[in-house]
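Minimal example, chain plus zinc ion.
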Amino acid sequence: MEKDKDIEMILKLQGIDYELGELERSKDYLPDMISNLEREMQEISNGLEGFEKELTEHTLLYRKLDIELATLNQELAKFQKQMRDIKTNKEYDALTNEIVNRKLKISSTEEEILKILTNLDDLKEKIKQYKQKLEEMEKYNTDQLTYLKKELSSIEDKIKIKKGERKNVTVRIDKRLLSTYERVKKGRGDHVVVTIKKRACGGCFKAIPPQKIQEIRKGEQIFTCDNCGRILIWAEDSS
Ligand SMILES: [Zn+2]
């Protein structure tokens, strides 16, 4: 068993498996990222649509009230003119009533118009902000979306390529070592090959007997951790 070559190959395998894991994970998170970006734009766009609809409604209401106000003012002027020609107290009372009534209506209509005008200003400001936000977002999100969608559509191809690479590596690894690797991977996940750190297993931190460390350092054989089963290697930063 050529230990150096085996270690090199098993580390290569571990690297490939990590990348394969990332690709599998991205099959979940890429669609999430895509729908988040799309939803983000849709929300702003819906908000903008709502404000624009409100602006149209309030503009129409403003025009309607403005016409009403003009009519009320015309009526008031007409009654005030008639005041000059009254002949009886009854006429006076009736006309006074009309005048007071128009004045009240004018004042409340004016108040309403003022409120609407303030509202229209607010809406215009909000629309301006939302348009700007949407423009910025579209600029950024469109690029992101193009990138993410391209990534997503190429995942299966990338996985296929990686699996091919994996096969090329596994055929060059000692069968017993490979089956150890596969078994530990099934139980422990990504970190199958670990370096020795502070005289302990880098995976489960269980101390390793000095004798075993000596043998691992000599590099004549590949050892696994008694506790977690991971493949132990001595690296430059081991201690
Ligand atoms: Zn261990």
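Residues 89-170 form the longest helix (82 residues). Residues 48 and 221 are 69 Å apart (CA to CA).
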